């Protein structure tokens, strides 16, 4: 008899291969695996993958089934290597647990996915404040009344979801303290939206930077902020900052992409890094170590952050409604300053 493959495969076909009932297969593949022996679940999922089984998500949602699918939200991944890496780590880890992944790059598509399908859960990466708060700064309701949600790499203080994030305040402190320790007395920060658009995001970093300035005996006004939405405009924006701020010698950047683009802009102006201006990035993307000068930056342990966040999510999925009343777990992960060639003593000495 010819074995069916791909879209023609049914639950009955998988059941016959494994030697169990179609109901057992349905439970193992529909988010009810707690009702099935773990080894049987593993065998069923392995056979389903081998046979190319593809569930009809819409039909199953219409029947009221909760799907073994997790939605992952992240904005602007095409221009952020760090976010792209984060999505890759998350998606691979989710699939290794036997779940499929839906990826969304806008808040609207995230909400639509959760409304249309009964998903097992959601992972929200680097959420914008507008996703969690309304225009008056009031917390929004849960994005889904039932599906567990975990936030990873968030700068937003919120009362609803489990969260694992880098300690952005400490990261900003480490970067600023590094420049202050090298004798820099006029420091710029390049990147991100205007502070009024993402006040929590800006506040976390400002607190860390001002702490470093205070410990170095410097007033807060030695910090000069320049909004910059992405790396494409960073060369022009860093030149604007230099025209506006006299005597600038140190530059903190929101991320490595903006830092590398800013260095390019400085070179166009005939300035040398770090002799004329020290530059510090954030996120330690793969290219940071190969650029010249190699970029001083903040390193974030993505693997540990993702593993911790998904452990919280899968535990909430396992516990079901019993976890709904528990207080959210918040984990802050310390970052590490990686000193390379793009930062040096003020004045090039």
Q: Structural class of the helix and strand makeup? A: alpha/beta
In one word, what is the shape?
Answer: elongated
The strand order across the widest sheet is 2-1-3-4-5-11
The appropriate CATH architecture of the largest domain is: 3-Layer(aba) Sandwich
Overall CATH class of the largest domain: Alpha Beta
DSSP summary, beta strand count? 12
User: Low-confidence spans: pLDDT under 50, at least 5 residues?
Assistant: none
Radius of gyration: 24 Å
CATH superfamily of the largest domain: Response regulator
The termini sit apart by 80 Å
Largest sheet: 6 strands, parallel
Number of helices: 12
Overall pLDDT level? 89
How many domain units?
3
Name the beta content range.
15-25%
| Percent in helix | 25-40%
Order of helices and strands: HHHHEHEHEHEEHEHEHEHEEHEE
CATH topology (fold) name of the largest domain: Rossmann fold
Can you give a write-up of this model?
The protein has 349 residues and is of the alpha/beta class. The chain contains twelve helices and twelve strands. The chain folds into three domains: 49 residues, lambda repressor-like DNA-binding domains (434 Repressor (Amino-terminal Domain), Orthogonal Bundle); 133 residues, Response regulator (Rossmann fold, 3-Layer(aba) Sandwich), CATH 3.40.50.2300; 145 residues, Rossmann fold. Helix 1 packs across helix 3. The longest helix has 18 residues. 40% of the residues are buried.
């Amino acid at each position: 008899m010819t074995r069916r493959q791909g879209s023609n495969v049914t639950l009955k076909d998988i059941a016959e291969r494994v030697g169990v009932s179609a109901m057992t297969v349905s439970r193992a593949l529909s988010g009810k695996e707690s009702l099935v022996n773990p080894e049987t679940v593993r065998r069923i999922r392995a056979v389903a993958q081998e046979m190319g089984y593809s569930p009809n998500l819409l039909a199953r949602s219409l029947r009221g089934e909760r799907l073994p699918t997790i939605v992952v939200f992240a904005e602007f991944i095409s221009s952020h290597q760090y976010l792209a890496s984060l999505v890759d780590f998350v998606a691979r880890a989710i699939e290794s647990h036997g779940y499929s992944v839906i990826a969304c790059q806008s808040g609207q598509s995230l909400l639509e996915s959760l409304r249309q399908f009964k998903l097992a859960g959601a992972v929200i990466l680097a959420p914008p404040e507008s996703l969690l708060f309304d225009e008056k700064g009031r917390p929004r309701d849960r994005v889904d009344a039932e599906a567990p949600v975990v936030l990873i790499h968030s700068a937003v203080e919120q009362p609803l979801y489990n969260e694992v994030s880098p300690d952005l305040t400490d990261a900003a402190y480490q970067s600023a303290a590094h420049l202050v320790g090298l004798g820099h007395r006029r420091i710029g920060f390049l990147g991100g939206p205007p502070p009024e658009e993402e006040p929590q995001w800006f506040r976390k970093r400002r607190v860390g930077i001002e702490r470093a300035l205070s410990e170095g005996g410097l007033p807060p006004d030695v910090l000069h902020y320049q909004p910059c939405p992405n790396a494409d405009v960073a060369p022009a924006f860093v030149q604007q900052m230099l025209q506006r701020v006299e005597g600038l010698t140190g530059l903190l950047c929101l991320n490595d992409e903006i830092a590398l683009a800013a260095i390019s802009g400085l070179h166009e102006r005939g300035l040398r890094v770090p002799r004329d201006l020290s530059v510090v990035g954030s996120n330690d993307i793969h290219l940071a170590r190969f650029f010249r000068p190699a970029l001083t930056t903040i390193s974030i342990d993505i693997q540990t952050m993702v593993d911790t966040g998904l452990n919280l999510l899968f535990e909430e999925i396992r516990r079901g409604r019993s976890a709904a009343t528990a207080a959210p777990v918040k984990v802050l992960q310390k970052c590490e300053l990686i000193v390379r060639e793009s930062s040096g003593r003020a004045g090039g000495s």
